[in-house]
Amino acid sequence: MTENTERRLTISTTVIGALIIVSGLFLFWWNRRLIYGNDILLWAIFSATAIAYAVAGYAIVRRSQASVIGWLCFFAGGILELSLLLSMYTIYAVAIAPGSLPAPGLAAAIAEPIPILHPSSSSSPARCWSATLHAPARCSTGSES
Asked: What is the Cα Rg of the chain in Å?
């Protein structure tokens, strides 16, 4: 990759990250009547962490020959902020303005990957994974099966 291409890619990644943060902030503001103190604190900490990752990634990619670490910082910060954005998206699409945004179940499934990685014990592993993968969709649509 040429230096000019890497510079443009770094700036583009930083701008996309900033847009994700601003979008999350707008959704956070629109969801404020349903959000309590713990959510506010966690959102602030995670957003600050994502910004720190982006700044570190930008600095490493621009100044170091070992740019892989910088891109990993961009990736970690981006995934963290995308998770926050999709969580706010789901709250807005389900509770604030139901039906106004498409696929809130998919957004919830992408935003909250922990249950997918650690399913509860069950007699049938297939049922366990099925229930875990469909839980966000059931939650957002209100269906039982």
From this structure: 18
- pLDDT value of position 113: 63
- What tokens were used for 7? 């510079």
Non-local (6+) Cβ contacts of 30 within 8 A are 92, 96
- The vertex-93 CA angle with 135 and 47, nearest 5°, equals 85
| pTM confidence score | 0.67
Residues 6+ apart with CB under 8 A from 11: none
Query: Which residues touch 44 (CB under 8 Å, ≥6 apart)?
Result: none
Q: What is the pLDDT of residues 26-41, one digit of tens each?
A: 888 888 888 777 778 8
The two three-digit tokens of residue 12, written as one number:
């583009």
For residue 1, the SS3 value is coil
- How far lies 132's CA from each of 102, 136, 140, in Å? 21, 8, 14
The Cα–Cα gap between 23 and 40 comes to 16
Angstrom distance (rounded) from CA 16 to CA 120: 36
